[in-house]
C-alpha cells in the first residue's frame, strides 16, 4: 500500500513539473508590451520638433504677399527689414539639410553650429496637411536667398524647395529676384517671380546689358507648377 502511495505522489510531482516548464516556455515566447511612456516619447520626438519649428514663423496676414530680400541701405539685421525673421537653431534647421546642402557640404548630424544663418519668416497653409515655409537661407555674402519649402505635417518633413527671392551684386553684376504670392477665389495660391539681371559692358561700369524675365506658377500641395519663362525686357546701354 505504501509503495502505491509513493508511485502516486511521484506521478503528481511529474505533472506539476511539466506544467511549470510549459508555462515558462510560453512566457519566454510571448513578447512583453512596450511601456506606454516609451511609445509616447517616440511620438513626441516626431511631433514636438515640428511644432517648435512652425512656431518660429509668422502667419501671412493677407494676400497678395510680396517677397523680396532687397534691403537698399538697410541692415539685414535691422528690424526695418521685413524678412529679417528668427534664426532657426541647429536642432530644428537640420530638417532642411537634405535640400539645402550637397552630400559633401552637409553638416555632420552632431556638429555644433552656433549660428545657422537660416531664418524663419512667413508661413501659410497650402492644404490642411501642407504648409509653405518662407525661409531665408545663406547666399554668397549673407542670407539673401528666400526659399519656399513644402512642409508635410503628418511626417514632419520638408518635401520640396523653390528659390523665390534673391539679391546679389558684385563688380557691376547684379541679380534681383522677387515674387508676388496671391490667392484666387478658389483658394488656390499663385506665384509670379520677377528676375532682373545686369552685367557691365566695360571696365568703367558705364554701360550695362540687362534682361528682365517673368515666371508664373500655381502652388499645389505637391509642387509649384510653372509655366514657360517669359523674357519681358532686354536693354543694352552703350
Automatic annotation (TrEMBL):
Organism the protein comes from: Rufibacter sediminis
Record's protein name: Lipoprotein
Source taxonomy: Bacteria, Pseudomonadati, Bacteroidota, Cytophagia, Cytophagales
Keyword terms, alphabetized: Signal
Record's signal peptide: 1-19
